[in-house]
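Q: Here's a chain of 481 amino acids. Please give me its 3D structure as C-alpha cells.
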Amino acid sequence: MLVTAYLAIIFLLALCVGLELTARRLTPPQPAPTAVANPAFRRFQGLFLQAYLLALWADWLQGPYLYKLYRHYSFLESQIAILYVCGLASCVLFTPVAGWLPQALGRRQACLLFCLSYSACCLTKLSRDYFVLIIGRVLGGLSTSLLSTTFESWYVHRHVDVHDFPKEWIPSTFTKAATWNHGLAVGAGLVANMLAEWLHLGPVAPFLLAVPCLGACGWVVLTEWGKEEAEGSVEGDKQTPLLGALNAPLARMSARVWFWRSCQEGLRCLLSDRRVMLLGGVQALFESVLYIFVFLWTPVLDPHGPPLGIVFSCLMAASMAGSLLYRLATSTRYRLQPGHLLCLAVLMAFFSFFMLTFSTAPGQPRPHESLLAFLLLELACGLYFPAVSFLQGRVIPEEKRAGVLAWFRLPLHLLACLGLLALHGEVSGTGGGEGGSGTRHMFGGCAVMMLAALFAVVSLFTLGRNDTDLRLEGARGEGEM
C-alpha cells in the first residue's frame, strides 16, 4: 500500500495538470472582467482571501489523522463512532445558530469566534480524556458551521452594502477560493503526512500546526478586516457608543426575527416546489454517506500500512480531477448538462459503495480495491458539488436559499448520525473491528442510499424535462436532460 499510495498521488496530480491544461486550451479567450481591472476590488478580494484561505487550510490539516489519533489513544471503534456522532450532532444544533450569530454578534466577531472555537477544538486533541475529546468534537461542530456561513456573510455584506461593487463580481471571489481550496486540501495531506510520519511527531502534530494558522487568520480578521471596516464604514455605522448600546438589543431582536422568518420561508419553498424537495432529497442522501465515508476510510485502509496523509492527498486530488472534468464537460465544446453529470456522479458513488461491500468482506480484505473505490467516490464528489450548486441556484430563489439549505442540512446530518450509531451498535454487539461485518453492512447501506438518490435525480429531471431553468444556456436539444 505504501508504493501504491505514492504512485497514485503522482498519477492523480499529473492527471489534474493535464485536465487543467486541456480546459484552458478548450476555453475560448475572453476579455478580462471589469473586476480584474478594478484595484479597489482586487485589494478587497485579497483581504478576504487572506483570512478565508488560512481558515480553510487549518480545517484541511485536521482531516487525515483524526481517526488515527483516536486509535493512537487506544479508543475502540465504537467509542470513536460516538465521537464522530457528537461532532455531527453539534453540526445539527449549531447550523441554525451559525446563520443567526453574524446578525447578532456582528460578522467580524463571528469570524473571530470561529478562530477561537476551532483553536480550542484542536488543543483538546492533546488530551486522552474521553470527555475532553467529546467537548472538542462539539467545538468542532460549532466551528465547521461557522466556517460555512460567517466568512461568506462578511464578504457579501462588505461587497454589496459597503463598497457597492456589482453583485456579478461576487462569484469571481468564491470561484478563486474554490480553486485554491482543492490545492490546499492536497497540500494539507502532504504536510500532515510529513509531520506525523516522516518527522515522527505523531498524529496530533497536524492539529497543533492548525492552531497558529487559526491564530494568523484571527489576526488578519482582527487587524486588517477591522481597518477595512473602519475605512469603509457607511454613515449609518458611525454612531456614538450610547446609540450603539441602545441599538444592540434591537439588532439582536432583528437577527432573531430574520432567522425565524428565513426558516419559515425556506420551509414553505421546500414544501411548495417538488423540484426543491427532490433536490433536497438528493443532497441529504449523497452528502450523508460522505460523512460515513469520512469515518470509515481510515479503519479500512490503516491496518494495511499506507501513509494516511498521502492517501488523503490522493482523495483530494481525485476530487479536484472530478471538478476539472465537470468544467470540461460543461464547456462550449461538449456542453453536457449539469443534470447529466449529477446522474453520473450518483451512479459512480453507487458503484463505489457496491465495490466496497466486496472489498471489505470479513477475513478477505482487498485494500487496493478499497482505495480504488474511495478514489472513484471522490471523483464523483468533484462532479457532484458543482452540478448540485448549479441546480440549487436555478430552482431555489436567492432570497430563500439560506433557509432552504438549512432545512436540507437537517436530514443530511441526521442520516449520517443514524448511520454511525448503527455502526456503533454492530461493532459493540459483534466485536467487529476494521474490516468487520459492521463496516461491510454500512457500505451496503450506503449503496442502497445512493440507489435512492439516483431515483430522486431521475424523478427530478423527468419532472423538469422541458424546464429551461435546469439547463445550461445554448443546450443542443430542447427536451434534453
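Q: Can you summarize the key feature?
A: The first helix runs from residue 2 to 26.
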